[in-house]
């Protein structure tokens, strides 16, 4: 096996920029000027105070006019036009204090909006940085020269080193092991034989190999992905502020009412009073406050949303598209099952494989070594280690020749069954052999995230009514994951261009969110209304075109973000509606002459205070997930850690069941049964009993009552019953032989226990253990 894939450029950490003081400087200066004017007024220098307030009004009017003209030039019509008219009207009629108060409110809204949008998107920078810029080309005389990528032409012979990104589309000249997940989404490593085509952008996960360039860099697959992302970003409609949607109805109403007040009374002052009261401070203040509060809260949950418009859209989303590899699944291989030849030893097989693989940086080798160390197996330093690209690694362990990788020669009958089992389960197979033949196989899987199923349920409860999984993986594997997490639709073997097309089709029907982690997801993230990247998994390219980035490797934080976004938007709409309703009442009074401009300005201040206090509610509430007390988290972590030992017993239980099914007369059959029964009694049953006694009562409060764990308690009873049933069969066999008539019932108990225990562990991990994240970002209490 070869080298582990690595990124071409270092991962840049996703972090929030510090608050820039200049964002608040205009607001602070205007507020100080207004207060200075008030001091002058109290001191009896009213003329000077009016000059100061007039200056404040003029200073605020300039940027407001510029913003309004720029919006009108773009054929946009927002609430700023009312502020401009109110400021200008206050100057014309000499109501300088009213104008200054309006100026402070406008500056406050602008500062909050800039604060909400200060994390400007870096767009495609990392995607472009990840693209290879040079290539190793074979020169005459056997030399290898490094040339700029734009000098590579079709027909050139290149060398792709371990961990390198394939620079151009081409044909491999020797066997190659590739990680194609960044382009296709395929979660398993792929072996390409000599003469097969490979796409640019995939990572060499094995030893170096020769490549015959088939296209230039500009015509290759990776360049196409970059162009797709650029085009999708360019076509993406600009975010429309929530306040501006209200302006479509509110601004015309305000202008008509002000005009009627002036026309019917003949007093321009009444029109100014209407405009002053109508100044949309509830929109310019309450809405940004609610949205900024939402941005702050999702950041504390480990989700960075780039601007308020994205958060607002996230709160209105109805459709969610999710990538599979690295999003719904862990994105890293894990040893799921070890199968040995008849009479073999599982622990010894894993120990031999992991010992040989210790010197290999291959991603699959790391999974085997990690599994062996978790089980406490003593590893031996191998000697004479050699690697064959695409075939495997060979070495000697304690003087014994061991080969790990592909299976050579005609496999025995039991190996055929292992292959079928791996294919049906969607797992990849690593064979372990010696000089006499295969010793067994280790089945690897890309496991579904424990929090994926719970997260999907929470997303539905939050209002997302259509969830679709899009992946470049095989249909069988994709369908298995889709059934596990319960999405509405699944699209397998989906190319980057097809993902973009699917996102566009869904976006035409509803506000759509796309979640992904790979380079192949970047164009789809850019095309969606809201693109969400799994940034903690090292997906720099997808993170930089996304509107939101999950900075922790937890999918359930997406559900947190959606719930908070919906709550913040609801509070913003509520605050704006209440504020505008009160403003309309005040406008009618002002039109009738009952409210002069200065009094209207201070009344508007009172309305502002009311809606701001309401908007601050967005700092709390809205999350459906209950907080887990520290003591309960400790219990969850402890029992989650014990699941590894239970799964080891499960693997031995399955091996024993297979032995009873195929060779019930074998001398080792009953001893194997006794050994696994002893492990069940000594390890599994005490674990289940302790959970029943300590963990489940502690979970009652966070989960809303004891009924939430009643199903799991019933599973404990069934597990204990099946273990006793197996023990009863063993007690009836003093001679160490199984009677043919009892084999069917014993098999039913063994396979039944295997199924019940596997389901029970999965349910606990999904429903309970996912409540205790390792890196939580709790809300401020």
From TrEMBL:
The residues forming a coiled coil are none
- Assigned protein family: Belongs to the cation transport ATPase (P-type) (TC 3.A.3) family. Type IB subfamily.
Q: Which residues form the Hemerythrin-like domain?
A: 637-770
Q: What is this protein called?
A: Heavy metal translocating P-type ATPase
Alphabetically ordered keywords of this record: ATP-binding, Cell membrane, Membrane, Metal-binding, Nucleotide-binding, Translocase, Transmembrane, Transmembrane helix
Domain P-type ATPase A residue range list: 131-230
Its record classes its membrane topology as: Multi-pass membrane protein
Q: Where are the transmembrane segments?
A: 24-44, 51-69, 81-109, 246-265, 271-292, 571-592
Write down the PROSITE patterns for this protein, in alphabetical order: ATPASE_E1_E2
Query: Looking at the keywords, is Translocase present?
Result: yes
What GO molecular function annotations does the UniProt record carry, in alphabetical order?
A: ATP binding; ATP hydrolysis activity; ATPase-coupled monoatomic cation transmembrane transporter activity; cadmium ion transmembrane transporter activity; metal ion binding
A GO cellular component annotation in the UniProt record: plasma membrane
Task: Show the taxonomic lineage.
Answer: Bacteria, Bacillati, Actinomycetota, Actinomycetes, Micromonosporales
The UniProt entry, under NCBIfam families, shows: ATPase-IB_hvy, ATPase_P-type
Q: Where in the cell is it found?
A: Cell membrane
**InterPro entries in the record, alphabetically?**
ATPase_P-typ_cyto_dom_N, ATPase_P-typ_P_site, ATPase_P-typ_TM_dom_sf, ATPase_P-typ_transduc_dom_A_sf, ATPase_P-type_domA, Cation_Transport_ATPase_IB, HAD-like_sf, HAD_sf
Q: Which organism is it from?
A: Micromonospora terminaliae
**Superkingdom of this entry's organism?**
Bacteria
Tell me which Pfam families the record gives: E1-E2_ATPase, Hemerythrin, Hydrolase
Q: What is its main location?
A: membrane
